Amino acid sequence: MKVLISVFLFVVSVGSSLSWGQDQKQTTKPALAVSIRSAESSYSIKENIRLTIQLENVSNDSLLLWRSWGWGVGRTNVRVFGSNDKEVFTTFLADQIPPPPHNSDFIELKPHEFFGIHLDESAMHFVNAPGTYDIFVEYTSSLPEKFIRDSLQLPNSPLWAREQGTILSNRIRIEVSKN
After folding, report:
1. Rounded to an integer, what distance in angstroms lies between the CA atom of residue 32 and that of residue 165?
2. Dist. CA 35–CA 99, nearest whole Å
3. How would residue 131 be classed by pLDDT, with cut points 50, 70 and 90?
4. Who's near 81: CB < 8 A, 6+ residues apart?
């Protein structure tokens, strides 16, 4: 009897959640991808490493995006791992606190358009010694959607905000030599 009641409650709860979902307006979730590439496959420890980081709208709808990259953990975070698969930590701390946003700080990316930046930094900002390294980017918007919508006059387009979470780029491999 307990099994029958449990099955009945399960069916009722699933059925009511399915019908509740049908009453809700279907919305398109914004889709964004991040990618990274390097200008070279090898660098000297004395050189700058030149990376290109891009955000691409991979949905079929326009998407509003804040232009500020906001470097650091929980924003745009460049992560480096050595050949031993351990993360590399240097004395350089990427911790940019972005300025308050204005309407002009947002761009509209149409489907399959991208927005990018060239990052040209000392190799010592990424690694401590010569070796083989894998690099990827974690991207998270710094701003919550409610704050953006309440504070700014933006078009009513899908918006990439903090609630969308963190997205990861592809991994690239570079060699860093002593010379």
Report:
1. 11
2. 24
3. very high
4. 87, 88, 133, 134, 135
Domains, the chain, with CATH or none: 27-177 (2.60.40.2970)
Q: Is the dihedral of CA 82, 85, 87, 89 positive or negative?
A: negative
Q: Report the residue count for the chain.
A: 179
The pLDDT value given to residue 6: 40
Q: Is 49 exposed, middle or buried (0-12, 13-18, 19+ CB in 10 A)?
A: buried
Q: Is the pLDDT of residue 177 over 60?
A: yes
Largest CA distance in the chain: 77
State residue 2 phi and psi, 5-degree precision: -60, -40
Q: Which residue has the tokens 């930094």?
A: 121
How confident is the prediction for the chain on average, in pLDDT?
A: 83
pLDDT, tens only, 55-95: 999 999 999 999 988 888 878 999 999 999 999 998 877 77
Residues 6 or more apart whose Cβ sits within 8 Å of residue 168: 34, 136, 137, 138, 139
Q: Which residue has the tokens 């491999």?
A: 173
CA 141-72-143 angle, 5° bins: 20
